[in-house]
Amino acid sequence: MNQNLVTFLKIIIVAAIFAFLGSWVASYAYEPLDKAAEILKLKEIEIFKAPLSGYTLGWPSINLLGYELDISGIIAGIVGTLIVLTLAYILAYMLLRKKN
Amino acid sequence: MHMPDGFLTLQVAAIAFLIDIPFWILSFKKVRRTFDEKTAPLFGTLTALIFAAQMVNWPIGPGGTTGHLIGSPLVSILLTPYSGVIALSIILLVQALVFNDGGITTYGGNVLSMAVVGSFVGYATYKTTFKLLSKLNVNKRTKLIIASFLGGWLGITSAALSTGIQLGLSSSVFGYGLSITIPVMVVSHAIIGLGEGVITATVVYYISKVRPDLVKEG
Q1: Could you read off the pLDDT of A45-100 as tens digits, one per residue?
Q2: Nearest-angstrom CA–CA distance, B58 and B67
Q3: How near does any CA of chain A get to the CA of B46, in Å?
Q4: Per-residue pLDDT tens digits for B128-151
Q5: Cβ A95–B173 below 8 Å, yes or no?
Q6: Among A31, A85, B18, B110, which residue carries the largest CB count within 10 Å?
Q7: CATH of B10-214, one of 1.10.10.10, 3.40.50.460, 1.10.1760.20, 1.10.443.10
């Protein structure tokens, strides 16, 4: 198989693993900016509600043996990775086509 | 480091957005000129990889805080800082519109810190360190590791400085000036940035082993 293709497939697999692992720990994220905001009493304003707000699918009514948030986080992470992958590929190939 | 809506005054948010515009134009021009069949797919997969990696948090920050990769120094070292600007701009847009991670009004500010400052400072640090170490006759592997570690570390720390400045200039929102916001942001990210440095150095070193043609030497 083409060496380029092998390298890129590896990166895609690693990205999927990160999306999977990240979704399990994302809910524990407490970043320095959050702490700074707490110290400085900054208030967040929500001007719109994103479809996968907080890296979850927003399906609390579905019972999945207590793993609803984890599973929804994993799916949201993988969906996000695929959206970014698609956008970046489309942009990269548009730029490449323009050049050629 | 993603600033949500409400953290910046409209003036600061607008100025940050205006500063981004020439960087976007320049980056698109440069990237279009340098992209080829090898770098275009790498750009796509690397951007997705950075997005996924940003979801993994490590708990090493002060006061129970966690940190995650920003990734712009890594993209800049492997491709160019112009690719770093575009990759992070895509990631930040998806995070804001799909996940409410970072605001809409603060999008320009987040791009300025993580995409523009993170990419260019990270890349400049990598290049400068690599050249300095070359003069000292340090072996190639050590040069690569030290230069990419410092590129990653200073990339995220300088991005935090940029965010601290924007927050400080928005003091009318919450009443704290630059003397408070800069140290709060920079000190915490200087510690968390060690993780960014380690990951950047590890990935750059790994890629230099499996695909040496993709890693530029300073």
Answers
A1: 788 888 888 887 776 666 666 667 777 777 888 888 889 989 999 999 888 887 76
A2: 5
A3: 7
A4: 999 999 998 888 889 999 999 999
A5: no
A6: B110
A7: 1.10.1760.20
